[in-house]
Each structure stands twice: as C-alpha cells, then as structure tokens.
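Components:
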Amino acid sequence: MNKPAVLLMLLTVAVVWRPGTTFADSQGDTLSQWIDQRGEQIWGKPPAPCSDLTFVRRVYLDLVGRVPSVSEIRDFQTLGEDRRELLVNELVFGEGPRRDTYTRLSASSLARHWRRVLIPPGAVVTGSAQGLETWLADAFREGKPYDEMMREITQIQSPDAAGGYYRLVGGTPETYAGNLSRVMLGVRLDCAQCHDHPFTDWKQHDFWGLAAFYSDINGSIDNPDGSRPTGKSGEIRFEGETYRAKVLWEDTPLDDVTRAPRVRLARWMTSPKNPNFAATAVNRFWQLLVGRGLYADIENLDLANEDERAFLDDLGQKFSEDGFHVQRLIAAICKTNWYAARAMSETDSDETFRRELKVISPEQVFDSLEQSLHLPISRIDPAAPRWTGARAQMVNRLGEAIGETPEDYASGIPQALMMMNGPVTSDAIDLDRSRLLRAVVESPFFDEDKRIETLYLAVLTREPSEAEKQSLTEYLDNKPDETTRRKAFGEILWALLNSPEFVLCR
Amino acid sequence: MSMTRSFETFSRRDLFRIAAASLGGISCSPWLPKLARAAGTKRPPKACILLWMAGGPSQMETLDPKPGHRNGGPTQAISTAVPGIELSQNLPGLATQMKDVALVRSMKTREGDHGRATQLMMTGYRPMGGMTDYPVLGSLISHRLKPADSPLPGFVSIAPFRFGNLGSGFLGPDHSPLVVSGASNDPNTRANLTVENLEVAGGNPDALLERQGLLNMLRQGAPSSSPAALKHASVYDQAMRMVETRGEGAFELDEEPTELRDAYGRNRFGQGCLLARRLVERGVPFVEVSLDAAAQGSWDSHVDNFSAVSSMCEVLDPAWSTLLKDLRDRGLLDSTLVVWMGEFGRTPQINPNRGRDHFPDAWSVALAGGSIAGGQVYGKTSADGMEVSDNPVTASDLYATLLEGLGIDSGGDNAMGNRPIPLVDEGGTPIRELLG
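Structure:
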C-alpha cells in the first residue's frame, strides 16, 4: 500500500477537510443515476424491473422494517408516474403525512441492522445490546453522518460510551480492536492476535498495534490470558511483548503515542483517504438493500483485487464527498435499476449481477405479521402481542438462526415449527380470534375472489395468479358446507404465512 | 398398506398416499419405531449423548475426591465396581457402573470465564472474537452421523442452559439443534419435556394434509433456483414430518414403565436422560441434556460448594447411572458414547464462603460407551489438586478422542465455503488409552 505519507499526515492534521453539504443532490437522485451508469459499465444492461407491488414490498421491508398495509399499497397506486421515487422519499426522508411514523420506523430498522453488524449473531455478548441499539437509533434519527457515528465509536473514553459497545463485545482492547477493523474496514485481524495471519499479510504487530489504542480504557475486563496495560497510553503488553499504537498499512508506530491516541485513530479511521472505510460502509448498505455486497465477502475486503473493488471504491468516494449522508445513500440505492431488478433474473451480459431472494430479519417477520394480521398494538391493550412478550419470544427463536448475509436462509426445524404451529399463527387462522380473517370472511362487500385477493395483498403484497385463483376456488368448492368453507380461509391464510414468499422477500 | 414396511423407506409422496388413503390416518398410524426394525440384523448406529453440566461442576466433589487433604474439604471417597478407582460419596450410582466409565482427571484448559469456556468446550475452539462461527459438538456430530432419511433431526438439545448463544455455526440450519424445552421441574408432572409447537395449529391433525397441499401450490410461485427457497422447502419438509409422525413417538415418555421413570428421577434432567435414550433408539445421533441447577444450588458453587454439589448429585447420579444401565440393557451402550462435562472445574482452595471458584487448570470429565475403554482413570492431579501431574488433556485432545470414539476421523475437515476448517483445533491428539 503506497499511502504512508498521506496517512501519516492525516494523523497529525487537526481538522479534516470535509466537503460542504451544498451538494445539489438532496434526495440521492444524482447519485442514483451515477450508480445506474457505473453499473452498466460493469454488468451490462440491468435485468428487467420488478413489478410495482414487489417494489412496494421491498422498500417497506427494507426501509421501515415491515410489509405495507393494504391502504399503504392503495395510496402508492394513486401516485403518478414517478411513484417509486416518491415512495422512497416518503419512507427515507419522511416526506408526507406519516412523517413521524416513518422517521421513527426507519431509524429503528437501521439501528437493528447495524446492531447486528456491530455484534454479529453468535458472538458472545456481555449484557444487553438494547442500549447500543438505542444509541444507534438516535443517531440515525438525528441524521448523524456515518463517519461521525464511527468516530464516536472509535474515540470512546469509557467502556459505556457509544451505547456501551466496548463492554458488550468483551470489554478488552483486543476484542474491541478486532471488532472495529471488522466493522469499519472489512478486515478480520483476529487471527493475527496469536500468530501472523495465514492467508493475508497481517502480522501480530498490526493487531496489537490497533489494540494498543485502547490499553488505557478504565474498567476493561481483566482476562488472565489477555493483554496487560503498561501504564502508558498507546502501549500494550501481550505474552511478554510490548506493542505501540499503530494504524493498519503502516509499518511504524505513531510517534508520541501517549497523546490522545484514540482521537487520532478515529480521525485516521474515518478519513476519506482511508482505503477501506468508505468502501466498507457502502458495501454494507448495498448488501442491506440489494442482498449481496458489491464485493460479496464484506468482512474480507482485504482479499479483493483492484477490479473487484473498483465500483465499491468509486461509490465510497461519492459517499464520502456527500458528507457520509446515510439517508441520501439509501435513497440513491433504492432508486437504481439494480435495486429494482426482478429477483432471480440475470443481466444480458453474464451472471455478474443477480438479485436473489432476501431473507427478512426476525423483527421484520414479527412486525410484518403484526401489520398483515391487524394485531392490536396499543401498549395498554392486554392482548397486544408486541407487549405481552410474544414479540420477544418470536424474535429470540428466529434470532437463534440467522444467516451471514440476507441471501442466506438459516432457519431450522424449531423456527419452522413456530411459524407453523406457534401461538401467533394459531390465533391468526382462528375465525373467532383473528382480526384479519374476520374482516375478510365476514365483510358483506367481498365475494370469494375478493376475499382471496385481500388475504394475498395483506400477507404477500401481491394478487393471486390465475392458476392460484383456480386452485383455491376448486379447494373451496370441495368444502361440503358453509362452516367448513369459512374455516378454509384460515387454511389459506396458514399457507400464505408459511409460504417461502412470506420470509423471502422477492 | 402393509405395516411391515418400515417408515424409513416411505417417500414423501408415499406418506401422502397413505394419509389420503386412510382418511385422516395421521394421528393413528402406528409408525414403526426404528428399534423394532433394528432388533433384527442391523447394528445400531453410532450416537452420542452429552450430559452438559453448565456452570462448571467441582471435580473434587465428583470424579476426583481428595479426602485427607485440606483442599478436599469434608467430601469422602467411596470405592467403585472397579477395584482401585474411587469416586466422591456423591456418586454411589455411578460407582456401580464404573466398569463402563473412563475418568479423565487431567483436563487443562485456559478459559476461566463462563461464556468463553462454554464456547471452548462446546465447539473445541477458543473464542476468537467473531472470526469463524464454529459449530457446537452436537452440530459436528449431526453433520457426520445424521441419517439422510430420518424424520427426526440429527441434534436434539434438552432443556438447554448455556452461557452464550451457540449453534450450528457455518454448518447451517440442517444441523442446528431441535430444542426440547422443559419449563417445569415439578417431579409430579412429566417435567414438561416437549418439543414446542409440535401440535398442529388449530388442533386438528387432518388439517396438515390440506396445508401441505396449499403450501405446495404457493411454492410453485417461488423461483426454484433460489438456494434460500430450496432450504426453506427442505426445513419445512422436515418440520412437517416431525409433526406428522409426532416425532416418531419419541416424546411419549408415558410409554415407559413407572419404575424405570422413577429410577431416572422424576425431574427435568432425569426424564431428559430417558428421552435421550428414546431419541437415540430412533436414530438421533446426538442428544444433549443440560443440568445447571437443582433444588439447593447450582454447579456454579461460589458459595456453600459442598451442599450445592451434593444437591446437584442427587439429581445427576440416579439419572446418569440409570442411563448407562438402560443403554447397556438394550444393547445400545457399545454404539452410544455418553460424555459428562462442564465448561471448567472449581478451585481446589476453599474460599471464605465455603465455595469454590472457576478453575480451568486441572479438572475432570467422564466418558462411557461407544468405543471408550471403561474402568480406567486417565491423567492425574497433584495431591492438592492445584495442577495436572500426569497426562494433561486439552479441549482439542478431548474432541479428537470423542470423535474417534464415534468412529469419526479426527483429522478430517469441514468446509466453510471453499475454506477447509479442521474438525478439531490444531494440536488435538486422540488419547489412544481411552479408545478400546
């Protein structure tokens, strides 16, 4: 890496140059066009676009964390020519009458996602991550720039700062260093903790150089086999060796290491000149929205070659020039042809771009069920599953099996059994207890076709195909009497809730 | 439909024909348990039962008593069925089974924190801060030994209590545990050992067939080339079979004689061990039964260690010894490896609260059945229990031995994408003395 001089200089410059927010692209439209063109240079012409209803389902799930209600779908359909752009603006920037709701939902949806980035499923956690999630949600709601959030995480002065992230991931300099380089730079250094990295050229002094920035955090957990502070800031001891604070891609430690080491690290980390910071950020947002990172192996970005990361680096630079504005980046991506591509179809050139089905998160499953089934949501309603513990139960069970990427369906038998036979489903298909079923089956304005259509729209955000309509009509016609015929709608609803389409966003 | 045909050979389509032909026959079909079939010619398949002692049991009050030394406390030693081998007074039942049990008294690990040590002993790998999501032992074994056509999962975890959220890791959902909850510990109930959500929603088992049909219709709409959709279909098919066969009747503990159920102990752990045997009989290759707390105390005996461990052993000892005897009586012990371990041991020095604290330097585990040569002690601790004086065993060594004890080559690899991940962390060597 031929950037030592620039990087060293950055460490000592007090004020980082930041381009003004005078950028004309207030809602990501210019960036969106740029992405479309850049993508075509690499992938060829984009695949056919998805249908309007699929697009609505995608953006509601991706941006506010649940499927759209039937009335939200109707509202969308009344918008004009540029309805897709308008909807994205509504959900991302809170334009329109439901501003407060969408702003709140999209901030908590982003926070949940980033909590899982910071603390991946399966990681050992000390305590509850709720505080971290709240910290993240506040930051996203305030529209805090991405680099500023990451600087706050980097330059913590206590284990409880920045939502307590330091404490949560183990409370030692080494666990924090490993996580920061993974999260912000897409580099897994942990192997180099005990030995030089087997696949890449990371050395022990790279890992411990980063850990050294945190050696003087008060309240670190004392692990007998772990690191020891030396009593000086910016220095750490491990297995008899002393390491001085050092950033990656540098051979020599910082001079004057004891002077505000973490502030300098934060500045280096989030600098537009850091080769991996902005690239990793846009890669993560792209993966969140499109399903697969522009470089798929997000946390091994150091293994990517120049061609593989060309698009990524360019987009990262745009993100950085735009002041790391999260909402604008998200809106820009959602407005591209790539985001809107039909799932599972290919570009006309080759298979380099493909939109797979995306597995929705545990919270998205519950929140979508709540929306689809018209579950009560008031905090004072004793039957509201959100507050009775039913939500937590479902989220925990689904959370036991989360894939590494949104394309990876990782649920097992316990999760399937819960969706098939669990309390939420049991209530949903019971005519006496299900609000959705009652509304659909007992409405005097609906004929049978309309009933089926409404169930499809509420649960799957689409209309039944002709073949499906025909099968379902036959199915209903085979019922011997009115009672079993009414009950059969419960069975249809069961199948919709358990269909692959419910958990795999098309 | 001939009842002599074994369930195993039915394809899904068969199942639907049968169910359709017998009009709602799902609930009353007499699914032939594998046991009856296996009784003839086939040797029973290899299996492993892990008795997981969450919290870290004291070695000195269980497998490595030190009577006469200050560190040993008031705990006495008793003789066992094998002359020369002694156990603590808390394990009289196990003492009668000693001919089949091998004790390892020289475990030496480096993790003294519950979460980290659990990760080490459950996966065989030291925690490395999110590097690789290593699968737990149950998933490793399920991956190697799960029969392709079984309606039951390859890994069942009974009343799990663990420090840390561990699962099948990179081996994926096919090998994640089926969790059997046990909310109640009331000795007069069935200890509530049920699989959650095995009852058909709405209560009518006949509905299942209709639902399957509707689901199949909806699946036509999902792109068949999507890996996620394929996995979804596979997991749902397995779950459906579980519901259809009611888990092959494995969970009907009421079928067992009262005396046997009493012998295991009418508590969650005791009945869990009995359920483990029933699952192994039906071809499940890995069952984990957890014990972390009893009426008075837990394994994490920082305070009043001696009464806590004695109370824990009142639950542990009858269940463990009855399990070994029951497996032997049924000809399953030679194929079933029973492992007893926690995440670490306890300090030999007794703390001011008459407790013992976390201690990974020198502690004990026990193995029985499978290819393990029983009736022996491997390794030794010093007179004060402070260190291993003979044949130290690491977590990797133990893992290598367990795998070999189940007939699995411990030098093999798993694949994570295109990266080979060794089954056993580097340096693990099977202990030949323990393998018969």
